[in-house]
Amino acid sequence: MTKPDPATIEALKTNTAAATTSEFRDQVRAVVPADKIFDALRLLKENRGFDFLSDITCVDYLHYRDATDRFGLVYVLNSTVTNERLIVRTFVNEPDLVVPSVTPLWEGADWMEREVWDMFGIRFDGHPDLRRILLPEEFVAFPLRKDYPLQGRGERHNFPVLTRDSA
Amino acid sequence: MAVELPENVVVGKLDALASWCRKNSLWPMPFATACCGIELMATGASKHDIARFGAEVFRFSPRQCDLMIVAGRVVMKMLPVLQRIWQQMNEPKWCISMGACASTGGVFDTYSVVQGIDRFIPVDMYLPGCPPRPEQLIQGIIDLQDKIQREGTLGGAEFRTKARQEPKRALVELTGLPQIDSARNPVIWSSEVKSH
Protein backbone atom coordinates (compact mmCIF):
# COMPACT_ATOMS: atom_id res chain seq x y z
CA MET A 1 0.00 0.00 0.00
CA THR A 2 1.37 3.36 -0.88
CA LYS A 3 1.10 6.73 0.71
CA PRO A 4 -1.90 8.79 -0.23
CA ASP A 5 -1.65 11.51 -2.80
CA PRO A 6 -0.66 14.88 -1.25
CA ALA A 7 -3.82 16.33 -2.76
CA THR A 8 -5.79 14.09 -0.43
CA ILE A 9 -4.10 15.58 2.59
CA GLU A 10 -4.75 19.06 1.24
CA ALA A 11 -8.40 18.31 0.69
CA LEU A 12 -8.71 16.93 4.19
CA LYS A 13 -7.03 19.96 5.71
CA THR A 14 -9.17 22.45 3.84
CA ASN A 15 -12.33 20.61 4.73
CA THR A 16 -11.69 20.12 8.42
CA ALA A 17 -9.45 22.89 9.56
CA ALA A 18 -8.36 21.19 12.73
CA ALA A 19 -7.01 18.06 11.06
CA THR A 20 -3.34 17.33 11.66
CA THR A 21 -1.31 14.74 9.82
CA SER A 22 1.90 12.96 10.55
CA GLU A 23 3.91 10.32 8.85
CA PHE A 24 6.12 7.48 9.94
CA ARG A 25 7.80 5.11 7.53
CA ASP A 26 5.33 5.57 4.69
CA GLN A 27 2.32 5.35 6.97
CA VAL A 28 0.25 8.53 7.01
CA ARG A 29 -2.26 9.24 9.72
CA ALA A 30 -4.63 12.15 10.11
CA VAL A 31 -6.12 13.23 13.41
CA VAL A 32 -9.60 14.71 13.17
CA PRO A 33 -11.75 16.11 15.99
CA ALA A 34 -14.63 13.88 16.98
CA ASP A 35 -17.39 16.23 15.88
CA LYS A 36 -16.02 16.41 12.32
CA ILE A 37 -15.15 12.77 11.84
CA PHE A 38 -18.17 11.80 9.76
CA ASP A 39 -17.70 14.66 7.31
CA ALA A 40 -14.01 13.92 6.99
CA LEU A 41 -14.62 10.26 6.28
CA ARG A 42 -17.36 11.06 3.80
CA LEU A 43 -15.05 13.43 2.02
CA LEU A 44 -12.38 10.77 1.83
CA LYS A 45 -14.78 8.21 0.51
CA GLU A 46 -16.67 10.24 -2.04
CA ASN A 47 -14.12 12.74 -3.26
CA ARG A 48 -10.80 11.06 -2.73
CA GLY A 49 -11.75 7.48 -3.58
CA PHE A 50 -11.14 5.58 -0.36
CA ASP A 51 -13.71 2.94 -1.02
CA PHE A 52 -12.51 0.20 1.32
CA LEU A 53 -12.65 0.39 5.10
CA SER A 54 -10.13 -2.08 6.49
CA ASP A 55 -10.64 -1.75 10.18
CA ILE A 56 -12.13 0.28 12.98
CA THR A 57 -10.42 -0.14 16.29
CA CYS A 58 -9.76 1.73 19.47
CA VAL A 59 -6.92 2.40 21.89
CA ASP A 60 -7.33 3.15 25.58
CA TYR A 61 -4.77 5.69 26.78
CA LEU A 62 -5.74 5.52 30.43
CA HIS A 63 -2.29 4.80 31.87
CA TYR A 64 -0.28 6.18 28.99
CA ARG A 65 2.26 8.85 29.83
CA ASP A 66 1.55 12.30 28.36
CA ALA A 67 -1.91 11.28 27.24
CA THR A 68 -4.53 13.99 26.86
CA ASP A 69 -7.56 11.96 25.84
CA ARG A 70 -8.75 8.57 26.90
CA PHE A 71 -9.92 6.73 23.81
CA GLY A 72 -8.40 6.96 20.34
CA LEU A 73 -10.61 5.60 17.56
CA VAL A 74 -8.72 4.43 14.51
CA TYR A 75 -10.19 4.09 11.02
CA VAL A 76 -7.99 2.38 8.46
CA LEU A 77 -8.99 3.36 4.94
CA ASN A 78 -7.81 1.83 1.71
CA SER A 79 -8.29 2.75 -1.88
CA THR A 80 -8.62 -0.25 -4.15
CA VAL A 81 -8.18 1.89 -7.24
CA THR A 82 -4.99 3.72 -6.39
CA ASN A 83 -3.62 1.30 -3.75
CA GLU A 84 -3.33 3.97 -1.06
CA ARG A 85 -3.71 3.56 2.65
CA LEU A 86 -4.68 6.29 5.11
CA ILE A 87 -5.30 6.05 8.80
CA VAL A 88 -7.76 8.48 10.35
CA ARG A 89 -7.83 8.94 14.11
CA THR A 90 -10.15 10.70 16.43
CA PHE A 91 -10.13 11.06 20.19
CA VAL A 92 -13.13 10.69 22.46
CA ASN A 93 -13.42 11.19 26.17
CA GLU A 94 -15.79 10.23 28.85
CA PRO A 95 -18.60 10.91 29.64
CA ASP A 96 -19.85 11.37 26.09
CA LEU A 97 -18.49 8.35 24.29
CA VAL A 98 -20.66 8.76 21.23
CA VAL A 99 -19.42 8.93 17.68
CA PRO A 100 -21.49 8.95 14.47
CA SER A 101 -21.58 5.57 12.81
CA VAL A 102 -19.99 5.21 9.38
CA THR A 103 -22.22 2.32 8.39
CA PRO A 104 -24.03 4.51 5.85
CA LEU A 105 -20.69 4.98 4.08
CA TRP A 106 -19.17 1.51 4.35
CA GLU A 107 -21.35 -1.52 5.14
CA GLY A 108 -18.38 -3.31 6.59
CA ALA A 109 -18.33 -0.91 9.51
CA ASP A 110 -21.33 -2.72 10.93
CA TRP A 111 -19.52 -5.51 12.75
CA MET A 112 -16.39 -3.49 13.38
CA GLU A 113 -18.36 -0.92 15.32
CA ARG A 114 -20.14 -3.66 17.18
CA GLU A 115 -16.76 -5.00 18.26
CA VAL A 116 -15.62 -1.56 19.45
CA TRP A 117 -18.86 -1.20 21.38
CA ASP A 118 -18.44 -4.67 22.88
CA MET A 119 -14.86 -4.20 23.97
CA PHE A 120 -14.62 -0.47 24.79
CA GLY A 121 -18.12 0.83 25.23
CA ILE A 122 -18.05 3.52 22.57
CA ARG A 123 -21.54 4.05 21.24
CA PHE A 124 -22.10 4.64 17.53
CA ASP A 125 -24.97 6.94 16.69
CA GLY A 126 -27.05 5.70 13.79
CA HIS A 127 -25.79 2.13 13.85
CA PRO A 128 -28.52 -0.28 12.68
CA ASP A 129 -27.99 -2.93 15.35
CA LEU A 130 -25.54 -2.00 18.07
CA ARG A 131 -25.14 -4.98 20.38
CA ARG A 132 -22.39 -7.22 21.61
CA ILE A 133 -20.73 -9.39 19.04
CA LEU A 134 -18.10 -11.51 20.79
CA LEU A 135 -19.17 -11.65 24.42
CA PRO A 136 -22.50 -12.93 25.71
CA GLU A 137 -25.34 -10.41 25.65
CA GLU A 138 -25.62 -10.34 29.44
CA PHE A 139 -22.02 -9.27 30.02
CA VAL A 140 -21.96 -5.93 31.76
CA ALA A 141 -18.39 -4.67 31.52
CA PHE A 142 -16.12 -3.57 28.67
CA PRO A 143 -13.09 -5.87 28.86
CA LEU A 144 -10.49 -4.18 26.69
CA ARG A 145 -10.47 -1.02 28.76
CA LYS A 146 -7.36 -0.65 30.86
CA ASP A 147 -9.24 -0.58 34.13
CA TYR A 148 -10.73 -4.03 33.56
CA PRO A 149 -8.58 -6.86 34.99
CA LEU A 150 -7.30 -9.54 32.65
CA GLN A 151 -8.84 -12.40 34.62
CA GLY A 152 -12.17 -10.63 34.75
CA ARG A 153 -14.42 -10.03 37.71
CA GLY A 154 -15.81 -13.54 38.10
CA GLU A 155 -18.11 -13.66 35.09
CA ARG A 156 -16.29 -16.63 33.62
CA HIS A 157 -17.11 -18.93 36.53
CA ASN A 158 -20.61 -17.77 37.32
CA PHE A 159 -22.40 -20.87 36.12
CA PRO A 160 -24.30 -23.76 37.69
CA VAL A 161 -22.35 -26.91 38.50
CA LEU A 162 -23.37 -30.29 37.12
CA THR A 163 -22.43 -33.31 39.18
CA ARG A 164 -23.03 -36.95 38.43
CA ASP A 165 -26.33 -37.00 40.26
CA SER A 166 -27.76 -33.86 38.76
CA ALA A 167 -27.50 -34.76 35.07
CA MET B 1 -17.28 -78.95 46.48
CA ALA B 2 -16.08 -78.28 42.98
CA VAL B 3 -18.50 -78.24 40.14
CA GLU B 4 -17.34 -79.76 36.96
CA LEU B 5 -17.85 -77.22 34.21
CA PRO B 6 -18.05 -78.17 30.58
CA GLU B 7 -15.65 -76.44 28.25
CA ASN B 8 -18.10 -74.00 26.79
CA VAL B 9 -19.20 -72.42 30.06
CA VAL B 10 -17.58 -69.29 31.51
CA VAL B 11 -18.37 -68.02 34.97
CA GLY B 12 -17.99 -64.35 35.70
CA LYS B 13 -19.61 -61.35 37.26
CA LEU B 14 -22.34 -59.61 35.35
CA ASP B 15 -20.70 -56.31 36.24
CA ALA B 16 -17.49 -57.36 34.54
CA LEU B 17 -19.32 -58.49 31.46
CA ALA B 18 -21.29 -55.28 31.19
CA SER B 19 -18.15 -53.22 31.73
CA TRP B 20 -16.33 -55.19 29.08
CA CYS B 21 -19.06 -54.50 26.58
CA ARG B 22 -19.23 -50.84 27.44
CA LYS B 23 -15.51 -50.18 27.44
CA ASN B 24 -14.97 -51.76 24.08
CA SER B 25 -17.61 -49.71 22.33
CA LEU B 26 -17.13 -46.19 23.58
CA TRP B 27 -18.65 -43.98 20.93
CA PRO B 28 -17.19 -40.50 21.26
CA MET B 29 -19.09 -37.25 21.11
CA PRO B 30 -16.46 -34.89 19.77
CA PHE B 31 -16.82 -31.56 21.48
CA ALA B 32 -13.96 -30.00 19.59
CA THR B 33 -13.78 -26.26 20.02
CA ALA B 34 -10.18 -25.40 19.11
CA CYS B 35 -6.77 -26.77 18.15
CA CYS B 36 -7.12 -29.99 20.13
CA GLY B 37 -9.97 -30.75 17.80
CA ILE B 38 -7.47 -31.15 14.98
CA GLU B 39 -5.58 -33.75 16.97
CA LEU B 40 -8.89 -35.42 17.74
CA MET B 41 -9.61 -35.62 14.03
CA ALA B 42 -6.10 -36.95 13.44
CA THR B 43 -6.73 -39.65 16.02
CA GLY B 44 -9.85 -40.64 14.17
CA ALA B 45 -8.06 -40.79 10.85
CA SER B 46 -6.32 -43.80 9.44
CA LYS B 47 -2.81 -43.46 10.86
CA HIS B 48 -3.74 -43.46 14.54
CA ASP B 49 -7.01 -45.21 14.24
CA ILE B 50 -9.31 -44.79 17.18
CA ALA B 51 -11.76 -47.27 15.74
CA ARG B 52 -9.36 -50.04 16.70
CA PHE B 53 -10.38 -49.39 20.29
CA GLY B 54 -14.06 -49.54 19.69
CA ALA B 55 -14.74 -45.89 19.02
CA GLU B 56 -16.18 -46.84 15.73
CA VAL B 57 -18.11 -43.70 14.87
CA PHE B 58 -17.96 -40.10 16.01
CA ARG B 59 -21.62 -39.48 16.42
CA PHE B 60 -22.46 -35.81 16.53
CA SER B 61 -25.68 -36.41 18.32
CA PRO B 62 -25.26 -36.65 22.10
CA ARG B 63 -28.19 -39.04 22.32
CA GLN B 64 -26.15 -41.70 20.55
CA CYS B 65 -22.83 -41.33 22.36
CA ASP B 66 -21.33 -42.45 25.60
CA LEU B 67 -18.04 -40.61 25.72
CA MET B 68 -17.72 -36.84 25.43
CA ILE B 69 -14.25 -35.68 24.47
CA VAL B 70 -13.92 -31.98 25.19
CA ALA B 71 -11.05 -30.90 22.99
CA GLY B 72 -10.09 -27.26 23.13
CA ARG B 73 -10.73 -24.22 25.23
CA VAL B 74 -14.26 -23.58 26.43
CA VAL B 75 -15.28 -19.94 26.73
CA MET B 76 -18.03 -18.74 29.01
CA LYS B 77 -20.35 -18.25 26.07
CA MET B 78 -19.92 -21.93 25.15
CA LEU B 79 -20.23 -23.40 28.63
CA PRO B 80 -24.06 -23.53 28.79
CA VAL B 81 -23.97 -25.32 25.44
CA LEU B 82 -21.48 -27.83 26.83
CA GLN B 83 -23.67 -28.43 29.84
CA ARG B 84 -26.74 -28.91 27.70
CA ILE B 85 -24.94 -31.47 25.52
CA TRP B 86 -23.73 -33.30 28.63
CA GLN B 87 -27.25 -33.46 29.97
CA GLN B 88 -28.56 -34.83 26.70
CA MET B 89 -26.21 -37.79 26.78
CA ASN B 90 -27.62 -40.99 28.18
CA GLU B 91 -26.10 -42.83 31.10
CA PRO B 92 -23.62 -44.48 31.36
CA LYS B 93 -21.48 -41.63 30.10
CA TRP B 94 -17.93 -40.52 30.61
CA CYS B 95 -15.99 -37.39 29.86
CA ILE B 96 -12.42 -36.89 28.72
CA SER B 97 -10.97 -33.43 29.05
CA MET B 98 -8.40 -33.28 26.28
CA GLY B 99 -5.59 -30.79 26.36
CA ALA B 100 -4.48 -28.09 28.75
CA CYS B 101 -7.28 -25.66 27.97
CA ALA B 102 -10.14 -28.02 28.74
CA SER B 103 -8.41 -29.28 31.87
CA THR B 104 -7.26 -26.03 33.43
CA GLY B 105 -7.77 -23.18 31.02
CA GLY B 106 -4.31 -23.62 29.52
CA VAL B 107 -2.40 -20.47 28.66
CA PHE B 108 -5.61 -18.48 28.47
CA ASP B 109 -6.16 -17.13 31.97
CA THR B 110 -8.53 -14.43 30.71
CA TYR B 111 -11.94 -13.02 31.44
CA SER B 112 -13.73 -15.25 28.98
CA VAL B 113 -12.08 -18.70 29.17
CA VAL B 114 -13.35 -21.18 31.75
CA GLN B 115 -10.40 -22.38 33.81
CA GLY B 116 -11.09 -26.05 33.54
CA ILE B 117 -14.36 -27.67 32.55
CA ASP B 118 -14.27 -29.89 35.62
CA ARG B 119 -15.58 -26.90 37.51
CA PHE B 120 -18.91 -27.44 35.79
CA ILE B 121 -18.94 -30.95 34.27
CA PRO B 122 -17.89 -34.23 35.91
CA VAL B 123 -14.66 -35.31 34.19
CA ASP B 124 -13.19 -38.82 34.26
CA MET B 125 -9.89 -38.47 32.43
CA TYR B 126 -7.56 -35.52 31.96
CA LEU B 127 -5.04 -35.40 29.14
CA PRO B 128 -2.22 -32.89 29.38
CA GLY B 129 -0.69 -31.44 26.29
CA CYS B 130 -1.00 -28.55 23.98
CA PRO B 131 -2.19 -30.37 21.99
CA PRO B 132 -1.74 -33.93 23.21
CA ARG B 133 -0.47 -36.19 20.49
CA PRO B 134 -2.90 -38.73 19.04
CA GLU B 135 -0.98 -41.47 20.81
CA GLN B 136 -1.68 -39.69 24.08
CA LEU B 137 -5.37 -39.47 23.34
CA ILE B 138 -5.39 -43.17 22.57
CA GLN B 139 -3.56 -43.84 25.82
CA GLY B 140 -6.18 -41.77 27.60
CA ILE B 141 -8.94 -43.86 26.08
CA ILE B 142 -7.14 -47.05 27.06
CA ASP B 143 -6.81 -45.77 30.63
CA LEU B 144 -10.48 -44.87 30.64
CA GLN B 145 -11.26 -48.39 29.44
CA ASP B 146 -9.26 -49.76 32.36
CA LYS B 147 -11.15 -47.48 34.71
CA ILE B 148 -14.48 -48.66 33.32
CA GLN B 149 -13.46 -52.29 33.66
CA ARG B 150 -12.25 -51.76 37.20
CA GLU B 151 -15.17 -49.81 38.55
CA GLY B 152 -18.04 -50.55 36.23
CA THR B 153 -21.30 -52.04 37.40
CA LEU B 154 -24.32 -53.20 35.52
CA GLY B 155 -26.67 -50.67 37.01
CA GLY B 156 -24.32 -47.71 37.17
CA ALA B 157 -23.84 -47.79 40.92
CA GLU B 158 -20.32 -46.45 40.54
CA PHE B 159 -21.76 -43.09 39.50
CA ARG B 160 -23.68 -42.78 42.73
CA THR B 161 -20.70 -42.92 45.06
CA LYS B 162 -19.95 -39.98 47.30
CA ALA B 163 -16.77 -39.16 45.41
CA ARG B 164 -18.65 -38.73 42.17
CA GLN B 165 -21.43 -36.61 43.62
CA GLU B 166 -19.29 -33.77 44.87
CA PRO B 167 -18.35 -30.92 42.56
CA LYS B 168 -14.65 -30.77 42.11
CA ARG B 169 -13.37 -27.24 41.90
CA ALA B 170 -16.37 -25.08 41.55
CA LEU B 171 -16.15 -21.86 43.45
CA VAL B 172 -19.65 -20.58 42.87
CA GLU B 173 -22.66 -22.71 43.59
CA LEU B 174 -26.23 -21.78 43.02
CA THR B 175 -28.98 -23.01 45.28
CA GLY B 176 -31.91 -24.88 43.94
CA LEU B 177 -32.08 -26.77 40.69
CA PRO B 178 -29.22 -26.21 38.31
CA GLN B 179 -30.45 -23.73 35.80
CA ILE B 180 -28.69 -24.16 32.54
CA ASP B 181 -30.38 -21.25 30.91
CA SER B 182 -28.08 -18.75 32.52
CA ALA B 183 -29.31 -15.92 30.35
CA ARG B 184 -32.51 -15.82 32.41
CA ASN B 185 -30.89 -16.37 35.76
CA PRO B 186 -30.57 -12.99 37.51
CA VAL B 187 -28.05 -14.27 40.06
CA ILE B 188 -25.42 -14.97 37.46
CA TRP B 189 -25.08 -11.65 35.75
CA SER B 190 -25.04 -9.33 38.72
CA SER B 191 -21.87 -7.32 38.84
CA GLU B 192 -21.33 -7.77 42.55
CA VAL B 193 -19.82 -11.21 42.23
CA LYS B 194 -16.21 -10.93 43.25
CA SER B 195 -14.92 -14.49 43.27
CA HIS B 196 -12.88 -15.78 40.39
Summarize this, please?
The complex is a heterodimer of chains A (167) and B (196). Chain A has 167 residues and is α/β, with parallel strands linked by helices.
Overview of this structure, please?
The complex is a heterodimer of chains A (167) and B (196). By secondary structure, chain A is an alpha/beta fold. Chain A has one domain (6-143): NADH:ubiquinone oxidoreductase Nqo5 subunit (Beta Polymerase, domain 2, 2-Layer Sandwich), CATH 3.30.460. Chain A has helices at 6-15, 37-46, 109-120; strands at residues 20-24, 27-31, 52-60, 71-79, 84-92, 98-100, 123-125. In chain A, the strands form two sheets. Chain A has a five-stranded mixed β-sheet with strand order 1-2-5-4-3. In chain A, strands 6-7 form a two-stranded parallel sheet. In chain A, helix 1 (6-15) packs antiparallel against helix 2. In chain B, strands 1-2-3-4 form a four-stranded parallel β-sheet. The longest helix of chain B is centred in the last third of the chain and has 18 residues, at 134-151. In chain B, helix 3 links the parallel strand 2 and strand 3. Chain B contains six helices and four strands. By secondary structure, chain B is an alpha/beta fold. In chain B, helix 1 packs antiparallel against helix 5 (134-151). Chain B is globular and about 70 Å long. Helices cover 29% and strands 9% of the residues of chain B. Chain B has a single domain, classed as Rossmann fold (3-Layer(aba) Sandwich), CATH 3.40.50.12280. The chains are: A alpha/beta (167), B alpha/beta (196). At the A-B interface, loops of A face helix 3 of B.
What topology does this entry show?
The complex is a heterodimer of chains A (167) and B (196).
Chain A: H1 6-15, E1 20-24, E2 27-31, H2 37-46, E3 52-60, E4 71-79, E5 84-92, E6 98-100, H3 109-120, E7 123-125
Parallel strand pairs in A: 2-5, 6-7
Antiparallel strand pairs in A: 1-2, 3-4, 4-5
Helix pairs in contact in A: 1-2
Chain B: H1 14-23, E1 28-32, H2 36-44, E2 67-71, H3 79-88, E3 94-98, H4 99-104, E4 125-127, H5 134-151, H6 162-165
Parallel strand pairs in B: 1-2, 2-3, 3-4
Helix pairs in contact in B: 1-5, 2-5
